[in-house]
Amino acid sequence: MALLEVDDIHTYYGNIEALKGVSLTVEEGEIVTLIGSNGAGKSTTLRSISGLTPPREGSIRFDGDDIAGVAPQDIVRKGISQAPEGRHVFPRLTVRENLDMGAYLRRDDHSEDMERVYDLFPRLKERERQKAGTMSGGEQQMLAIGRALMAQPKLLLLDEPSMGIAPILVDRIYETIKQINQQGTTILLVEQSAHHALDASQRGYVLATGQVALADDSDALRQNEDVRKAYLGA
Amino acid sequence: MEAASIAAKPVSRRPGEVVRDLLSRFGLIAFLLAMPVYIAVKDLSSGEGITPLLNLLVLGISNGAIWALIAVGYTLVYGIIELINFAHGDNFMLGTFTAFALFGTLGLTVATGPLGLVAGLLVCMLAAMAVCSTTNVMIERVAYRPLRNAPRLAPLITAVGFSFILQNVGILWFGSSQFSIPNLIESQHVLIDVGGVKVRNGDVLAVAVTVPLVLLLTQFIGRSRIGKAMRATAQDPEAARLMGINVDTTISFTFLLGGLAAGAAAVIYALYQTTLWYFAGFQAGLIAFTAAVMGGIGNLQGAVLGGLIIGVIQNISDDRIAAKWTPAVVFAYLIVIMVFRPQGLLGEETREAG
User: Fold this and answer.
1) Which of A186, B1, B329, B350 sits in a 20 to 30 Å window from B233, CA-based?
2) Phi/psi at A18 (nearest 5 deg)?
3) Taking an 8 Å Cβ-Cβ cutoff, which residues of chain A contact chain B?
4) Residue ranges of the domains in chain A?
């Protein structure tokens, strides 16, 4: 049984149907990516899994439990955390306080996880006492990922980790994403720039207008003529 | 790069720039100090000395302490959901009525001994705090939470609606005229007199309740788990939910804290003013809201600073200009401060601004 099974979910914003029956699975230990153009429903899929915009129809099973319609805090408790699109760090909290917020639901000592995050992103250690809002986009992205890791997730959702970040930093961030995965965290990754995402992942789904248009191994998707034209600029 | 180029040419600053720099840094402080300094100089030169001004400052600080406690409720709520809780002042009024009702129930009179009085007033304060916080949480649940995703105007108008409803509850309870209540603590009795500077019972009570409460509140919000959840929710509610924070509970809790402060303020106000009125909450609420905006809405220290400044301006204006001009003077100050510092004296940039 897969760690995450999303089955035919329909999610609405008011009366607008943003997801028109999305299904996907993520196996334990994988990196899976969702690619697609703006407005295809990539972020909405992640928001549905996290419980921010619960689907009106369909089911989401995580680790054996149905989590569609469960409150966001209970979904975090079950082991799914997210680094959202646009990073959404707490601008007037320090780096350290942001990481503390990531461990909000944990009552145990989380200093080891903080050390782990600082090992993954040494830059964050240097900026420990700096207000998150004053950092560069790349640093904020590191913080958003690190913050999500503080919850000790089984499944990490990453929404557009490369958005608005200098290319050299994107390479670094993707190296770290692979490292996080090798340390045992399953990852579902949303990207508009498909190069990095397909490179890092084992499998991928192409979303178009709220539906899965294509699903395959990432290598196969990279060779796919339509994907190359539409998302890889080839 | 940029920093280096700026640092490289400090010599070439023209006098105009220096003046502008000084004005932008200290202009508002100078503006705020102008009236008290003018009065001090005038009094000193006419031989009256500094005592009259110091007496006004004492009164202003104790009045301001009450405004500050009410302002805390406006600023916490605005900080977290960007809503002006118009019913807050009227909720405070219900607190004053609760305290007065309990004076009768507990048999507190001017003849009650000091021990009984302290115990009784403590009960009154806890009861008023309980009533105000329960009402506040209830209002949020009924009139604001269902409108969380509605256009901004919707919760604003339900807030105004609740303001009127609470006023009517006040009228039903103790009628529509002002009424006097027993002066339990002899609030005008001079407790300390240092060379003509008089500190009265009421002044001591106001400061003795406000200072520890505000310090406690600041520590609580800064250190506690739910306090951190409040700050996180205020800065980015959606990210807060992704951290596993129950945003609804956190918002309810914020209303609870605001209600507690309003309840405490209500008891001080009742004992200090000894005259109550169903409309007093609306007036006090308006002043406290002004204090919160002046200090920088969303900022706890700002609310306290704004309350104290308004208290001092009111007392100076009452005494040296005329009581009927006081509202105009207070709001003239507000307007000048807003024009030059729209985010308020201690305000930070808001969520929308980044």
Assistant:
1) A186
2) -85, -35
3) 50-52, 71-73, 76-77, 81-82, 84, 88-93, 97, 100-102, 104-105, 133, 147-148, 151
4) 4-231
- pLDDT for A234: 64
CA-wise closest residue to A152 among A192, A130, A183, A198: A183
CATH code matching the domain that covers B6-351, chosen among 1.25.40, 1.20.1250, 1.10.40, 1.10.3470: 1.10.3470
> Closest Cα to residue A150, out of B228, B230, B225, B244?
B244
User: How many C-beta neighbours within 10 Å does residue B15 have?
Assistant: 7
The complex scores an ipTM of 0.95
Chain B residues in contact with chain A using a Cβ-Cβ cutoff of 8 Å: 225, 228-229, 231-232, 235-236, 238-246, 348, 354
The pTM of the full predicted model, rounded to 2 decimals, is: 0.90
pLDDT tens per residue across span A155-211: 999 999 999 899 889 999 999 999 999 999 999 999 988 899 999 999 999 999 999
Contact residues, chain B, for A100 at CB < 8 Å? 228
Domain boundaries, chain B: 6-351
Mean pLDDT of all residues in chain A? 95
Between chains, do A104 and B246 touch, taking CB under 8 Å as contact? no
* Residue indicated by tokens 């309350």: B307
Q: May I ask the CATH architecture of the domain A4-231? A: 3-Layer(aba) Sandwich (3.40)
Residues 6+ apart with CB under 8 A from B21: none
Segment A66-94, tens digit of pLDDT: 999 999 999 999 999 999 999 999 999 99
Query: Could A147 and B229 be called an inter-chain contact, meaning their C-beta atoms sit closer than 8 Å?
Result: no
Tokens coding A188: 């579902």
Are the Cβ atoms of B235 and A91 closer than 8 angstroms? Answer: yes
- Count CA atoms within 13 Å of residue A25 on its CB side: 10
List the alpha helices (DSSP H) in chain A. 42-50, 72-78, 95-102, 111-120, 122-126, 137-149, 167-182, 194-200, 218-223, 225-231
Which of A143, A128, A150 lies closest to A79 in space, CA to CA? A150
Burial B306-319 (b: 16+ CB within 10 A, else e): bbbbbbbbbbbbbb
Q: Which residue is associated with the tokens 């729209």?
A: B342
- Determine the pLDDT at residue B11: 56
Closest CA to A230 of A212, A211, A207, A202: A207
CB hemisphere CA count around B273 (13 angstroms): 22
- Token output for B343: 């985010």
Q: What chain A residue is nearest to B229 in terms of C-alpha separation?
A: A101
Q: Do B244 and A50 touch (CB under 8 A)?
A: no
What does the alpha-carbon distance between residue A21 and residue A11 come to, in Å, rounded to a whole number?
8
Q: Which residues are A11's β-sheet partners? A: A19
Could you tell me if residue A9 is left (phi over 0), alpha (psi between -120 and 50 degrees) or otherwise beta? Answer: beta
**Residue A230 to chain B, least CA–CA distance (Å):** 31
State the average pLDDT over residues A108-130.
95
